[in-house]
Amino acid sequence: MTKILVTGGAGFIGSHTILKLLNEDYDVVTIDNLSNSSYEVINRIKFLANKNFDFIKGDIIDKSILKSIFSKFNIEAVIHFAGLKSSSDSNNNPISYFENNVVGSINLLKEMANFGIKKIVFSSSATVYGEPSTKKCKETFELSPISVYGKTKLLIENILLDIKFAQPEWRIFNLRYFNPIGAHPSGIIGEDPRNVPSNLIPFLTQVAIGKREQLLVFGDTYDTSDGTGKRDYIHVEDLASGHIAALRNLEKAEKNNINVNLGTGQSYSVLEVLRAFEQCSGKNIPYKIVGKRLGDVGELYADTSLAKRILGWEAKFDILQMCNDAWRWQKMNPEGYDKT
Ligand code: NAD
Ligand code: WQD
What three-state secondary structure class fits 249? Predict the structure, then answer.
């Protein structure tokens, strides 16, 4: 069995990906410092997979832990999710973000190199595109992230490109996710933000469950069908499958395109998502239009042709399935992992 190191495996996307890896008969070890997640998710993945895997509570900043993992386990490839991910938080705490995301990644890459492990799938983000003049984003676009968070992602992408340039035998994917939402269809694992959610779907689900009074819609004067912001929402299960496809591709010894978008190629406005969510939940969602959020763009969606061509992967789930699964998770876990 191929052993994969997953960093940040207790998080939203990591947990769904580990479950899929186990179901595909990969052997998994994960490191997570639980700074934005709970140990309970590990139990739940094991329950759903009916399989065991190794969990190490630790920080990728800590080189000695990384060394001990690579010494103990025969790792063949790494999927690197661990990182801090809030754009607004990053602008207030640049040092923490550069240290956690960039220094953490450098430590990881250095230990991988020391142990001769040269296959990595990195969690990048559509945020690296910044405010492109064309809404449909191609991997070849010029990149100019706005937030500190986005800059950390671009820096890591560039470090990986330079490694590949210097040592072409490395096999690397920078997967640029658009807007991951949804949850496992069982409702047993899902997205569990620690603070007041800044993303649309977790906020919506908390309004629906009665934890928040109303959704604040950030602006209705964008150049979109109804004036509200449009995004490319992708089901976390599709995203997890995208990682399996990337891993399979890395296992083949060919040259690869490094930067690949993972999205559906379709965009939905805030009000369209709200209506879809109302339809799935049977709840009326009160909302109020307020001013635009700083740093938001009107519309962004993925050009998905490269992912299709290179990985043979495309998203399967539509917005109703995404909302259905997000709502099932919220209903079954009104207080998230720790308090159900
Ligand atoms: P998440 O916060 O749920 O998961 C990240 C996990 O990494 C958490 O469990 C956290 O405890 C852990 N972690 C953070 N810093 C660590 C460190 N130094 N050492 C060890 N563990 C650490 O986030 P997510 O939504 O699952 O995102 C996973 C990755 O995908 C992140 O790198 C994020 O930037 C990227 N991404 C996320 C989105 C999104 O909207 N969710 C979009 C694009 C890219
Ligand atoms: C979606 C739409 C908002 C909340 C962020 C990060 C990005 C990536 C994905 C990590 C926008 C509107 C939202 C609310 C609203 N993450 N909205 N009221 O901003 O596209 O991307 O998550 O890489 O880096 O920036 O996602 O879910 O916050 O917003 O009206 O309470 O919903 O204005 O149009 P975003 P989002």
Answer: helix
Residues 6+ positions from 59 with CB-CB distance below 8 Å = 33, 65, 104
Q: Based on the residue annotation, tell me whether 149 is a catalytic residue of this protein.
A: yes
Taking the CA atoms of 162, 165, 167 and 173 in sequence, report the sign of the dihedral they define: positive
> Domain extents for the chain?
2-181+234-264+302-313
- CATH number, domain 2-181+234-264+302-313: 3.40.50.720
Q: Which ligand is nearest to the CA of 299?
A: 2
Could you please report the per-residue DSSP string of 150-189? HHHHHHHHHHHHHHHHH-TT-EEEEEEE-EEE---TTSSS
Q: What is the pLDDT along the chain (340 residues), one digit of tens a residue?
A: 779 999 999 999 999 999 999 999 999 999 999 999 999 999 999 999 999 999 999 999 999 999 999 999 999 999 999 999 999 899 999 999 999 999 999 999 999 999 999 999 999 999 999 999 899 999 999 999 999 999 999 999 999 999 999 999 999 999 999 999 999 999 999 999 988 999 999 999 999 999 999 999 999 999 999 999 999 999 999 999 999 999 999 988 666 679 999 999 999 999 999 999 999 999 999 999 999 998 899 999 999 999 999 999 999 999 999 999 999 999 999 999 986 4
* Size of the chain, expressed as the number of residues it contains: 340
Q: What are phi and psi of 209, to 5 degrees?
A: -85, -5
Backbone angles phi, psi at 268, to 5 degrees: -125, 140
What the block records as the tokens of 291 is 């001013």
0.85 cut: is pTM over it?
yes
Distance 291 CA to ligand 2 centre (A): 14
Degrees (nearest 5) of the Cα angle 115, 116, 119?
Answer: 115
- The first and second tokens of residue 4, run together, are 């994969």
60 within ligand 1 shell (Cβ under 6 A):
yes
What whole-number distance in Å separates Cα of residue 239 and Cα of residue 58?
Answer: 25
Distance from Cα 23 to the centre of ligand 2, integer Å:
31
